[in-house]
Amino acid sequence: MKSTLPICIALFALVFVIQGCKTKEEKAANKALLSAEQGAALAQFKLGKMYASGEGVPEDKLYAYMWVNAADIQGLGDSASEYKSELVKQMTPTQIEAAEKLYAECKEKSYKSC
């Protein structure tokens, strides 16, 4: 019993460390999220692109559209408008409607916890 306890503790510590490690992409997504929640249009656009590609966050077209739409509405420019148009081509009308609803809910909450 004595000899297995240190091994169990070491394995537990290893699992804890591995789960706590984030990739460079995940760290970038967290940083973008913090700025996006503050209303930074460029960060919203970047975060939307990350959701579209699954870079640092789970791939999710609804969140991709929601964040890119937020940046576009703030007047980020043609890049946001064009990217949103490309996203729309990949989505069903039901998905677009859900993404618009998600945007309205997030805007209402000032983008907190979105």
Molecular structure report:
With 114 residues, the chain is mainly α. It has one domain (24-108). It is 75% helix and 0% strand. It has 6 helices and no strands. It has helices at residues 4-20, 24-37, 41-53, 61-73, 78-89, 93-108. Helix 2 packs across helix 3 (41-53) and helix 3 runs antiparallel to helix 4 (61-73).
List keywords for this structure.
114 residues; mainly alpha; 75% helix; 6 helices; globular
Q: In summary, what is this structure?
A:
It contains six helices and no strands. By secondary structure, it is mostly helical.
Overall pLDDT confidence: 87
How many β-strands, per DSSP? 0
Regions with little confidence, pLDDT below 50 for 5+ residues: 5-18
Count of distinct structural domains: 1
**What sequence of helices (H) and strands (E) makes up the elements?**
HHHHHH
Radius of gyration: 19 Å
Taking the alpha carbons of the first and last residues, their distance comes to 48 Å
Oligomer classification: single chain
Topology:
Layout: H1 4-20, H2 24-37, H3 41-53, H4 61-73, H5 78-89, H6 93-108
Helix pairs in contact: 2-3, 3-4, 4-5, 4-6
